[in-house]
Amino acid sequence: AGMKFVLQYVGCFFAFFSAGFLIISTWTDCWMVNADDSLEVSTKCRGLWWECVTNVFDGIQTCDEYDSIYAEHSVKLVLTRAMMITADILSGFGFLFLVLGLDCVKFLPDEPLIKLRICLVSGVLLLLAGLPGITGSVWYAVDVYVERSSLLFHNVFLGIQYKFGWSCWLGMAGSLGCFLSGSLLTCCMYLFRETSSGRFHSAYSLRKGYSSAATVVTNVHLPPSQTATSKMYAVDTRV
Hints:
InterPro entries: Claudin (IPR006187), Claudin16 (IPR003927), Claudin_CS (IPR017974), PMP22/EMP/MP20/Claudin (IPR004031). By secondary structure, this protein is α+β, with helices and mostly antiparallel strands. The chain is 69% helix and 9% strand.
């Protein structure tokens, strides 16, 4: 039981921070940051929804949102948005299911097998969340790196060159955390599911055996003659 609690809390810890990292990375503005050392007056970051320029002297930040979601955007931007939003939704639901499945939460306290199944469902959702999260963040980072390398290889200078920033790293960390917590919940909790199921069936069989034995003992200690005598006593009493 102690090992089960430890696994639940470790999985909950990683699920909480992983879902938070994915959500923060999706809605922050530093997926790409300028990598040109000659630009010392400002730092320019690009996110999935807007880009911001921060003055390094006074810290003033100016952000410009992209065009409408229905406007034409690059395939990299559209697919990364879709995958990160999917990862956010799946990881959020995975964390909520995990909270309901914790033994310390008073939800279905008399149904340990159902709570274990809830933890298993949470693990599956977290594993599914890690897949689009790691795909979107790594693909975005690789695309930025390839674009920068190709420009350097052809000696092309466009004024500002980018490298992937901390929002992209945060998306990778959140996705890996989802894989870790999902693996703990699906693999390890399944072992506890088999143990709890065996205990449940053995306890049920033991209770059933006790009830059958009590019935037999009752029948043994009540012979037919005694039963007939009690019936006659009841009739005489009524008369």
